[in-house]
Amino acid sequence: MARSIKKGPYIFHKLLKKIDGKTPQETGPIKTWSRASQMSPDMVGFTFLVHTGKDFVEVFVTEEMVGHRLGEFAPTKKFFRHGGQMQKALDQKKKDAEITAAKAAKAPAAK
Prior knowledge:
Elements: H1 13-19, H2 24-27, E1 30-32, E2 47-51, E3 56-60, H3 85-106
Parallel strand pairs: 1-2
Antiparallel strand pairs: 2-3
């Protein structure tokens, strides 16, 4: 559910203090744990280090990101891959095909 218009967007007050009256060049990356904070037009050009639960992900704010939340650009889960035995077999076939293609390209063209 969206936040009421009367209340306005949620922006963590300490983030506003850190960027108030400063330029992105003089502040450097700003470390934050506030993933729920929305990005405002004042934040454009700043780089934030957003906490993912384990480490910090660098998020550079652009004009298209205004209105979105910081946490949307710092995923908390790392995708490893689908598969298992079947996926390993497919990967091996792909690798073998690449090796044979490389050997064929390397061999001189016979006429």
